[in-house]
Amino acid sequence: MGVCGYLFLPWKCLVVVSLRLLFLVPTGVPVRSGDATFPKAMDNVTVRQGESATLRCTIDDRVTRVAWLNRSTILYAGNDKWSIDPRVIILVNTPTQYSIMIQNVDVYDEGPYTCSVQTDNHPKTSRVHLIVQVPPQIMNISSDITVNEGSSVTLLCLAIGRPEPTVTWRHLSVKEGQGFVSEDEYLEISDIKRDQSGEYECSALNDVAAPDVRRVKITVNYPPYISKAKNTGVSVGQKGTLSCEASAVPTAEFQWFKEDTRLATGLDGMRIENKGRISTLTFFNVSEKDYGNYTCVATNKLGNTNASITLYEISPSSAVAGPGAVIDGVNSASRALACLWLSGTLFAHFFIKF
User: Fold this and answer.
1) 313 phi/psi in degrees, rounded to 5
2) Would you say the pTM of this structure is higher than 0.85?
């Protein structure tokens, strides 16, 4: 059964048939504000997803019937709503303007809309195109990853938006201005080095709204290397400390050896203390047997390295003294001179008396 079979008012059937026939009339490009013909629809309408779009059509008092259509679907005919979409409402229906609004616009609303009028038995149409912009949104991004140095790494960052967003990868763990990596959804790093570890930022931008930003952390494992180990001189009976610093991921474990003997805390008044990248071997009361060469060994699951450190003897007089020690030395010298002067005075007094 045709649509007219369901209508109670004959004029509505006539409107439907007329509008559908009218819609078949070629319309060409959207009418611009400088055109003399009417109806005159506004230029293309651009709105963001979730906003409201207003479609306006300028008419005059010769118009007898008006309607808004979306492709072949009638939205409004005069004041009568034909669309079942609650978001579509009429705004203005006057002798000079006929406007509707689409609320909470989504991407499926994008497309051509036609303002159709009947005047002096001559149908006229004007078309406007609704463009829906969508802010960028990152839909899929790689998880944090841990790899061994020398491996190949591929990071993925997929984003959607209208217009299609530009995806940019940036390395955050480098100096400012040197962190740009690539402008692509995929970031590929071959033969990764330890200085390429850190956070990588994916940014999706299409100028519709603020960029969507997400981060991925790359951890690069590498074997230990000892970056700092210094020989130490100390006097007998004093406290002495040997220090060994090693860089490694995962963090290195340390061992200390003297010749072939592994050392342990508590043996012969020694203490080994490991804090992060640094290991220290402390002697609380250095004796002659403590002098010699010591080996610091740093190990993780990727390998090991070692360094030789010497604890050597220095005489007390050559030891570097603190400010207090310097003051004590000056006072001792002064006391010696005072005693010498006093002894001389007493001797002279005794000699004169006798």
Assistant:
1) -90, 140
2) no
